[in-house]
Amino acid sequence: MSNLNPVVERVTQRIVERSRPTRQRYLDMVAREADRHSDRSFLSCSNLAHGFAASGEDKPAIASGRAINLGIVTAYNDMLSAHQPYGRYPEQMKLFSREVGATAQVAGGVPAMCDGVTQGFDGMELSLFSRDIIALSTAVALSHAMFDGMAMLGICDKIVPGLFIGAMRFGHLPAVFVPAGPMPTGISNKEKQKVRQLYAEGKVGREELLASESASYHAPGTCTFYGTANSNQMMMEMMGLHVPNAAFVTPNTPLRQALTRAATHRLAAITRKGEDYRPMAQVVNEKAIVNAIAGLLATGGSTNHAIHLPAMARAGGILIDWEDFDELSSVVPLITRVYPNGSGDVNHFHAAGGMAWVVRELLGAGLAHADIPTIAEGGMAAYEQAPVLMGEALAWTAAPAESGDDAMLRPVANPFLPDGGMRLVQGNLGRGTFKTSAVDKERWTIEAPCRVFDTQEGVAQAFKAGELDRDVVVVVRFQGPRANGMPELHKLTPPLGVLQDRGHKVALVTDGRMSGASGKVPAAIHVTPEALADGPLAYLRDGDVVRLSADDGTISTTADLAGRDPAPAPAPAFGMGRELFAMFRANAGGAEQGGSSMLELAGL
């Protein structure tokens, strides 16, 4: 690609060189698997009979070994609004498969928890490691070796990364990720945020808050703010694992069903039994991972992917770190503003031009790689087009020449910010991530005495008691993967936002997560090494002066930590099944490596 930005080219080449041994081991493994499990013929008659015993009219086709058989891995449950539409997908996809002479089976289900339900409560401590369990469940589903392709049904926070990691270990098979789309827009995000802050201040009660939240989260489909779930969908587009521009079409519409049909047909067309074989291991290469990072930066996506993407890449033998994010952020501008970085949600984003606009802008400016295989014919260029129905036929049209809303989408030549807004901060307190895209520039550097907490409940209590009504750096430690599974700390957002609105200089420093719903308060998150791993945060004390700066990329204290003993770690948590996850916590790697126990123990 002749116009590729030199920084993008340099970072990509650095990743290639760093990953050369591990990537080659991965590709060698995939080649062995392709030779051993190229079709179902190696199974004994008894094994095979078990595999199609309940397949009804598809039995003869599966038994013959000649027909393409697609394995559906589904994260369906009807408690997650985003995943409720998947309930009918398998039956639909079986019909769509038969249209092209193929068959499909549900290979298995994976758990899918909703962070929105568990947020701030005990169950949230299972959230990050649910990604590893989803990956393991995906491997169990595909271990039957009955399938020629993988249809992955999942949307939300840990679900797509988990499905991705599991599928990559079966990279000799092609994979298509099949989204279900966002729910229609509810009340404005500004109104929702206003009620949340009023509740935090005690000015409205639970009844008013619940009414507001119910008007926002109100129907089947993904939550409409641009958090981790919708960032997942963006990344699948940037890596070429979706049917082009399928991410943000609402559920239960004719266009949504047409896209699911197209995904099924396309997966059948790219298996080894066809003439356009596109195994996942080849589609997801170093360039595809760089594209995912570029998309994340350009759209102001979830900081959770500073953890998920390293883990996802490792599953394919590709090694990335936060310096790669930081360096790419220096040249990839912020060209979208979707709530919480702007006022409109993902439905407004899609209507204004959406992913077709973003892909076209990034490719045109040389900020993403055009030459990756993708599951679509035409490579990344196909993702510059948006799907439409012409009668009953699905077609694609070019992205609009002009943004449909320049408060939400802008060209690379006139961005909202000149950089991607995901900074690496480092110093004598460790390394962390600072998402600048939602934070006013005058708040990028905060220096103040700190107040140290071991729980977010402690912060809430201190706020209610008026103890934080001043310039303060709030430190919340023992929130990393090894300590308690690294829950998201969204309970911190309303009180810290109130303090900032009162005119105080406020910042957050934590070894926990805040995700794509983190907002206007400056924060160093994912700080590593975490406190439980003898990280510097374990040595901080109330009143130590802490400086956090996205301007110069630092996080430091003037306190002398060397002569201190570390703070005692909280006792391991019991209840809500957390004790069953002790193995995951004990073996978890650092946040920058993906915070996984599974990958650590597998030597990946």
Automatic annotation (TrEMBL):
It is an enzyme of class 4 (lyase). It catalyses: 6-phospho-D-gluconate = 2-dehydro-3-deoxy-6-phospho-D-gluconate + H2O. Binds 1 [4Fe-4S] cluster. Its cofactor is [4Fe-4S] cluster. Its EC number is 4.2.1.12. Residues 70-380 form the Dihydroxy-acid/6-phosphogluconate dehydratase N-terminal domain. InterPro entries: 6-phosphgluc_deHydtase, Dihydro-acid_dehy_C, DiOHA_6PGluconate_deHydtase_CS, ILV_EDD_C, ILV_EDD_N, IlvD/EDD_N. [4Fe-4S] cluster binds at residues 156, 223. One of its GO terms (molecular function) is phosphogluconate dehydratase activity. Residues 408-594 form the Dihydroxy-acid/6-phosphogluconate dehydratase C-terminal domain. Belongs to the IlvD/Edd family. Catalyzes the dehydration of 6-phospho-D-gluconate to 2-dehydro-3-deoxy-6-phospho-D-gluconate. PANTHER family: D-XYLONATE DEHYDRATASE (PTHR43661), PHOSPHOGLUCONATE DEHYDRATASE (PTHR43661:SF1). This is Phosphogluconate dehydratase.
